[in-house]
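Problem: given the chain below (125 residues), write out its structure.
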Amino acid sequence: MLRVAAGLGLASACALLGLVVGLAAVALYQSWAFLLLAAVSCVAVVVALPRAWWSRLPFVAGFAVLVLRGTLPRAEGDYLVAATSHGYALLALTLLLVVAAFVTLPRPARRPARRAGRDPGGSDS
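Solution.
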């Protein structure tokens, strides 16, 4: 139970960090220097976080939610993430991070199949 609570706390912290970095990226993406800084910081955080469901995936999900929210039209009719080379580069970075987060997830441990009436060693004679 304590392990699940610690995992949820880590996931919440990583998701919040992803939201903050995503907000900074959306706010400053129109300059190539800041877009490059956002890309380097996101990749560094994803590489630094351990390969687990509770760390990389929530960070990238928080980042992606905020960036994708910026692509939705606002009440004024414009977008936070414009259809420019900077905007498409930000969307490509988001897609790259999502793919990297899913590809690097640890595989579930394989459990040997049990059959009724047989011993686990498989020596039925």
